[in-house]
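[#protein-structures] MJ: dropping Acyl-CoA hydrolase here for a structure pass
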Amino acid sequence: MTEDRGELVLRLIPRLTEINSNGHIFGGWILSQMDIAGGIVAGRLAQGAVATVAIDGMKFISPMLVGDIVAVYAREERRGRTSIGIRVDVIATRGADQQQIDLTSGLFTFVALDELHRPRILPTG
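AK: finished. structure tokens for Acyl-CoA hydrolase:
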């Protein structure tokens, strides 16, 4: 992951109910947190409602463990006429030495929506 992770949007501690059969945190849980964080940033940039339409280049780098403190970062990576690509990176702080572990990264594409839930043109800037 790049050093320019963007804005810290969420900071979380997964609960024991989020454990999969391997003893790691369920990937779907972190994916939902990434979508929430990306949506917060995309909605602010779009100045209104957005909808997730794609997730590209999603990769799980390291397993997330019980006790990890999870930080979700997001930044604008690309912009189209009605859509915006938000890069979302997830980092864990782990153990007594507070080691920083890259967990996952993905590019989430959001479309700006009008009041009838149809795509609308993004504001400039």
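MJ: nice. The first helix runs from residue 27 to 46.
AK: one more thing. The helical segments are 27-46.
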